[in-house]
Amino acid sequence: MYMKSHKLLGRARALAVLLQVAAVAFCLYGISELVDESAAHAATQRSRNYSGANILVKYRTDVADSTARVINNLTQTVEADAIEQLDVKVLRVPEHKATEDILSIYTRNGNVEYAEPDYEVEPFETIPNDANWRSMAAFMTILNMPRGWDYTTGSHNVVVAVVDTGTNTDHPDLAANSLPYGYTAVAGLDYKTDTKNHGTGVAGTVAAVGNNSIGVFGIMWSGSILPVKVADASDVMSVANVSKGVNWAADNGAHIINLSLGLTTDSTTFRNAINYAYDRGVFIVASSGNENRAVCYPARYPNVMGVGATGNGNTRLSISNYGEELNVLGPSSHYTTNASGDYSIMSGTSFSSPAVAGLAGLLLSYNPTLTQSQLRYYLEQGALDLGPPGWDKHTGYGVMSGYYSLNLLASDMGLEPRISFPTIGSTPTQTVALGDTITYQLQVSGGVTPYTFQSTVRIYDPDGANYSGSNSPLSASVSSSGLLTITGNTEGTWWACVRTTDSLDHYKHNCVEVAVTAGVDDVVITTTALPDATEHTGYSHTLTATGGTLPYTWSATGLPNGLSMNSSTGVIAGTPTAAGTFQVTVTVKDSANVVQSKLLPLTINALLPTIGIAGIANNELISPLSNTKVVATASHPSGINKLEIYIDNRLVALCDSAKNSPTNSNPTSSSCDVYIKGSNTLTGNHTLRVVATANDTARASDEVSLGFRR
User: Of the listed 243, 350, 472, 670, which one is catalytic?
Assistant: First the structure.
């Protein structure tokens, strides 16, 4: 609260009359009052996170400088600075004036295009002291960077501007990758000075020198850093100074600008500065913010790549801002360069953004012709999806991946094949009643077998928010063979996601949508098992279900070749063509779209060849004078590969494609014959055995007993 005296109000009215007269001479519009303020109001104004008492004013293009000076004189503001590229004036408000009141005067003036506070811009940082974050190898592996560096480690022709609190470019891990010049938005300060100890860490995350046997390495460890200091002597960053830095970087060779800073309020000046750089071909990356709320500016602007953060375990960092403007995530914590010339652990979205900026630099190094929209495409489409399939507001397109983004680019350039990921493809929504448990067999294809499944199943809502522990709406586990077991804890629709890895270590999060219902009249599959079948033999079995609303619609995955499901009757029928055990997932959906699935293994037994023995009876006695012709025949749907005739264990006849060709021309049967007779030396009881081998390797045998007389 504050008071205005009658005397001050009278002066204000007198000034208003003078301004009305001045408007005739200088084409002024809308200035109607000048009001003093109390010290209490001044204190309130300074608490609004304005940068000192500065405002940003842009006059209309047809307004003469003399007119602007008159307005400034009447409001007692002083031109402290200017953003030349945007034609914006930085005006300092007198200590005894309220910034809101002065802004109101300029806003209502017809000569002014816009006026706004010079907001303070905050760096986004948190400094933990968890020693485990020192493992750069682990963090780089999460990002698939070692494989990414097989494509490129960067190029000094690619320039990344670090618009921040300053960068100690004399740091031994930055000097070789820093350009020999830079910029400070505040006269008299050195761009190399970083008393806030923020910009130097950001620069190290982008492009600390790699492979030099010391310290750390950045994402683009062979690139170029353009240092741009936008903090004042008190380490305060204002919209005006940040905008000047962005514009200077755009005019001085930057290909990429990283902004690990932001504010919650939109600023026309800031937005125009971003558009100025974007219109000159600069790719802009910015942190989303660390308050677990809406994405901050400038990451919120459409011409900026908004970057959130992952924490330990490669899940979204709980404080990372989210929303419609979020594009991708980067790792939040880095062991990186600091302003003292040493190294520190630094964390927050301030350090996820430069990781993405560094990866953009690698992509541009690999293909310098990429446009801004193409860079965005490869960063987004190469990201490892963490939540529900596709984009979501909590995780964007997923966490950045050096290898996958660069492989996608290389494959589009025709330089190498695109990675084939292990994928479950499209799956129906699984329905489970509250408190009940269902199973679902993940049917994986793509990549190179065998597959492995990470034991942890991550649970997400449709917006990408992650749940764990006792608050999770689903309890889920996955077996080594990919059998997903899910229990419904909370009504609603959720996603159960499993990391699936192939033998080449290419991995993907495969997700199944699960609807948890109240359990009233849910459809339930009552079939408990599928009876065995035999290959090449007709099979039919009807599945049953109860509950829900008729009619039912049935489907099945994992059926062997030759069998199919009738969607109306629930009958699995056909003639299976191969033996084995198959993991069949059957699904029933009622007319209210309530769904249940069930895993029902199906065993297909091998069909054995059929054998016939003619020309001799069982237990027949053969005399030495006889010459008995024995004919063995066999048949099988796949055809007979060979027939063998043994007396006792001695092979006496072999019929295959090489010798004793089958006398039967039917390609699904074969016959073989042998003449046998008794002898004075071969007496007693013996066994004649026929062995048939089918073309599909199924084997069978039959035998008769015989005797030889002297």
Answer: 350
pLDDT confidence band for 678 (50 / 70 / 90): low
The average confidence (pLDDT) of the chain is: 85
The DSSP call for residue 355 is: H
Catalytic residue among 36, 81, 118, 164: 164
350 is catalytic: yes
pLDDT tens-digit map of 46-57: 334 555 589 999
Whether 164 is catalytic: yes
Q: Which two tokens stand for residue 425?
A: 């493809």
Cα gap 474→422, rounded to integer Å = 24
In the chain, the amino acid numbered 248 is W
The sign of the torsion formed by the CA atoms of 175, 180, 183, 187 equals positive
Q: If you search the block for the tokens 């990919």, which residue do you land on?
A: 482
Nearest CA among 554, 538, 544, 541 for reference residue 588: 554
Q: Which amino acid is at 142?
A: I
Q: Phi and psi dihedrals of 124, rounded to 5?
A: -100, 105
Q: How far does the chain reach from its first CA to its final CA, in angstroms? A: 134
pTM for the complete prediction?
0.69
Catalytic residue among 171, 198, 255, 636: 198
Q: Binning pLDDT at 50, 70 and 90, where does residue 413 land?
A: very high
Cα–Cα distances in angstroms (integers) from residue 149 to residues 144, 146, 222, 350, 383, in the given order? 9, 5, 10, 23, 16
Domains and CATH numbers, the chain: 6-121 (no CATH), 131-412 (3.40.50.200), 430-517 (2.60.40.10), 524-605 (2.60.40.10), 610-708 (2.60.40.10)
The amino acid at residue 608 is L
